Amino acid sequence: MQDPPYNLVMCEKRSVEEFIGWCRKWVDNCYAVLANDSALYVWLGAEQNNHFQPFPQFITMMAGTKFKSASLITMRNQRGYGTQKNWMAVRQELLYYTKGKPSFSVRYTDIPKILRGYYKEVNGIIAENLQRSKSKNIRPGNVWVDIQQVFYRMEENVNGCYGQKPLKAIERIILASSDQGNTVTDFFAHAGTTLLACERTGRRCVTFDIDPVFAEITIRRLERFRRTGKIGWQAGNPFERELTEINQGKADLFVGQPNQIALSRI
Ligand SMILES: C[S@@+](CC[C@H](N)C(=O)[O-])C[C@H]1O[C@@H](n2cnc3c(N)ncnc32)[C@H](O)[C@@H]1O
């Protein structure tokens, strides 16, 4: 599972060519480390006022790799932007690629099946869709409308993590495309959602983040889950203790080069 920063690195915008060149490198690294029969999921945005970049460039680049395309999933967000002058932008794209022939187990949503009447003949008997189906709930398909976008009132919220994905979405991917004990990798840990999802579903996880603050948050999120069963901080802060010490004048914050933040005890 990969969730790269969408063409924004340390608030510095790169050209789409540079971004795609950089993506090609981590995609190749991904191919190299994945087992022979594996799934690759990539979250990607599309700038609607700029020819949907970098989406078309990314999928074209992927066509030149050894990965095979398998599905283009759209997850619907609750809150969007551009509601007055355009269609409200509420979509999040999730690309599903395969290496070899990975297993895939069908997952169901919590949404009950309510539509009837799709008749089909099975073994000489005309059956209606509800009679034929294996579950009373619908499958997610490749349009997901049943996952709540993370916001500050939800327990899973991690303050300061601008790109946090819902735990339910990551768990859905992991449960569908891996087995217990398998290793999942995520090169862009951020709020540590993949690590937590692996912990909860019995997978091993190899994850990292270029920013030590996010790497620390990822570790703290797992440790806190193991201690308390909580999946996030809701309106609290992963650095509560440090912030209290600073407010009480017991510690100072040192901010050096980009990515260098340290707390020195006074
Ligand atoms: C969109 S966020 C990932 C969100 C994550 N899936 C979650 O649910 O919390 C992208 C992350 O990639 C990290 N990042 C950016 N460039 C990186 C690089 N070259 N190597 C590793 N991590 C990088 C950023 O620091 C950021 O935390």
Could you describe the 3D structure shown?
The chain has two domains: 8-110 and 138-236, Vaccinia Virus protein VP39 (Rossmann fold, 3-Layer(aba) Sandwich); 111-137, no CATH class. It contains seven helices and twelve strands. It has helices at residues 16-33, 55-63, 129-132, 167-177, 193-201, 212-228, 240-247; strands spanning 8-9, 12-13, 38-44, 68-81, 89-99, 120-122, 125-127, 143-144, 183-186, 204-207, 251-255, 261-265. A hairpin with a 2-residue loop joins strand 1 and strand 2 (12-13). Helix 1 crosses helix 2 (55-63). The chain is globular. 25% of the residues are buried. The structure holds S-adenosylmethionine. S-adenosylmethionine is lined by residues 3, 5, 9, 161, 163-165, 187-188, 190-191, 193, 209-211, 214.
What's the arrangement of secondary structure elements?
Layout lengths: L7 E2 L2 E2 L2 H18 L4 E7 L10 H9 L4 E14 L7 E11 L20 E3 L2 E3 L1 H4 L10 E2 L22 H11 L5 E4 L6 H9 L2 E4 L4 H17 L11 H8 L3 E5 L5 E5 L1
Parallel strand pairs: 4-8, 9-10
Antiparallel strand pairs: 1-2, 3-5, 4-5, 6-7, 11-12
Helix pairs in contact: 1-2, 4-5, 5-6
The structure holds S-adenosylmethionine.
